[in-house]
Amino acid sequence: MNIYHGIEDFHKLSYAVVTSGTFDGVHVGHQQILRRLRESADNHDGETVLITFWPHPRLVLFPDQTDLKLLNTFEEKADLLREQGVDHLLRIPFTREFSRTSSSDFIRKILVDTIGTKKLVIGYDHRFGRNREGSFDYLRENAPKFGFEVEEIPKQEVDNLAVSSTKIRSALQEGDMQTASHLLGRPYSLSGRVIRGERIGRMLGFPTANLQIDNPNKLIPADGSYAVIVTTGTHEHMGMLNIGIRPTVGGRLRTIEVNIFDFDRDIYGDTLKVAFIRRIRDEIPFEDVETLKNQLKKDRERAIQLLTNL
Predict the structure, then answer these.
(1) How many CB atoms lie within 10 A of CB 305?
(2) To which H or E segment does residue 83 belong?
(3) Would you give the distance in Å from CA 166 to the centre of its chain?
(4) How does DSSP assign 32-59, residue by residue?
(5) Quick one: residue 270, left, alpha or beta (phi over 0 = left, psi -120 to 50 = alpha)?
(6) Which of 1, 76, 262, 287 is deepest in the core (most CB within 10 A)?
């Protein structure tokens, strides 16, 4: 997959099948659009192009009014789109100036002149251009004069539940990993750099890797303990992870700590990928450290049970 960080880097294609949007999460609804994109391109010996905007428009337009957290960093999104078979990913820097681009200018300057769009595939209720004026009806009426056709993918339903990035974010913020995984089509994941902590986990008999998430907009799931799959390099390991302040040992700052089962290597400074499989329990204060240790043993047993049955 080719990645472009602005329209000036893109070279016009002979037959481009295009979609656009933030595609946060690259969830099962997005995947349906991408399958149709691939199918249309293959039918015409063409190439697929996905236009996305970074930073997320809401973070630019309403910086003081939004607490929006994202399902993907740009790098994570690019990896997921590569897995979906996208040929070209065009990242357009989203600025206040760009937000004033009219739908007609977007069509002519970007879709037609820059990319060479022959077919535009969009999701249900997708809009673009200044004040979101570019609706499906507008596209359908004006596409012929610009020399391309347009197709709208119907609203996606999974078990009668509408798929959206917003619903996935809500599930994660409630610790509902089953719903999130169902709508994403895979477990939710995050990557973090291993930093030195207070070594409390080692004292408890459960050494942990303390993860630092560098992107402040990445969504962190609800506090609690989770069964997880941890990727170190090219190897996967079972583990359990805690998000929270560690009240039993006097913690005050929210941390992300993962205990990797049957693992004993120095990985300070390494980047780990963690896939959330199931939430085991809330984070709660225990009477004493010994009670906490006993609960951690139970958490490990429960995590192994959940992960073994994948």
Answers:
(1) 11
(2) helix 74-83
(3) 12
(4) HHHHHHHHHHHHTT-EEEEEEEES-HHH
(5) beta
(6) 76
Note the CATH number of domain 187-308. Answer: 2.40.30.30
pTM for this entry: 0.90
Structure tokens, 52: 């996305």
User: What CA–CA distance (Å, rounded) separates 288 from 256?
Assistant: 21
State how beta strands 149-152 and 117-122 pair: parallel
2-155 belongs to CATH 3.40.50.620: yes
Structural domain spans, the chain:
2-155, 187-308
Residue 105 contacts residue 111 (beta carbons within 8 Å):
no
pLDDT in tens, 167-206: 999 999 999 999 999 999 999 999 999 988 766 666 677 7
* Rounded-to-10 torsion of CA 301, 307, 309, 310: 170
